[in-house]
Amino acid sequence: MFIRLFKKYYRFSLILLCSVLLVSCDRLLTPDFNTDITGLRAGQYTVDPDHASVLWKINHLGFSTFVGRFNDIEASLDFDPENIENSSIEVIINTAGLDINNPEFAEELRGSNWFDVENFPQAVYRTTSFVESNENSFVFDGELTLLGVTAPVTLNIVFNGGGRNFLTRKYTLGFSGSANFQRSDFGLSRFTSFGVGDNIELEIHIEFQDLN
Fold first, then answer.
1. pTM passes above 0.85
2. Do 208 and 181 touch, CB atoms closer than 8 A?
3. DSSP letter, residue 36
């Protein structure tokens, strides 16, 4: 019985020790990681292109949600943690970098019937005003320019955390975001009358690095 109790205590102690070590290592790797937005560094930030994704989703004939992404993204953030309403974001998407799991259809989407990347190589989104906040969630109004048309689009943002990235040694902020708009507002109305959705849902995952 003593041996069984010893083995049980030993296993418990080992699990507890491993848990402590994992937490300690995490704090050593990111010692200043902070989820309190008011304690972060203000200033100018630029996107980390290796950790930035813009997904777009559209209803496909009611059967499923078709998902694509843009891989070529430029973005900048003017960040004021004490006064979020003074912060602003600009995102530039090079539309030729669209990515789906069908190369032939991807090439069609780049053509004149869809994104027309030869004449309109970029889509640009800029925030224009602050709407509201709820802890680490924020809402901004902004404008999206796509295919030469500019229209209002609201951006919902969730702050994930910030601190010095131990891999890059750069001070980094992480966000996720979402937005919805009608593609027909920008002249992308092809096949809407045949059941291909008009509403586009954007899902954004992005890290910004301090320029200093």
1. no
2. no
3. -
